[in-house]
Amino acid sequence: MDQIHIPEEWHDQALLTFEDFCLLIHTPQRTVRDWRRRGVGPRWARFEGCGRLYIQVAEARRFVATATAKSTARS
């Protein structure tokens, strides 16, 4: 499995769309939607008047670091 890499040059306050995040972590959209429905996974934002979901790069980094730490602990 490829390691998830979030480029260092991405600013923490920059935004990723739901679709971009799914591609970044190599996870099907259906799985990430299920995480959201169950209240697990990263925190999402929706702007008023816009139906799209966004995630800040900082939140994506936090999520990846947490998920990596959990999988390392299980090994």
Summarize the biggest pleated sheet: 3 strands, antiparallel
Question: What structural class results from the helix and strand content?
Answer: alpha+beta
Total number of distinct structural domains: 1
Helical proportion, percent range: 40-55%
One letter per element, helices H and strands E, the order comes to EHHEEH
Strand order of the largest sheet: 1-3-2
Distance between the termini: 15 Å
Tally of DSSP helical segments: 3
The gross shape turns out to be globular
Radius of gyration: 13 Å
- Please count the beta strands (DSSP E, at least 2 residues each): 3
Strand content: 5-15%
Mean pLDDT: 88
Low-confidence stretches: none
Structural features, described:
The structure is a single chain. The protein has 75 residues and is α+β, with helices and mostly antiparallel strands. The chain has one domain (15-74). It has three helices and three strands. The chain has helices at 18-24, 29-38, 57-74, and strands spanning 15-17, 45-46, 53-56. Strands 1-3-2 form a three-stranded antiparallel sheet. The longest helix is centred in the C-terminal third of the chain and has 18 residues, at 57-74.
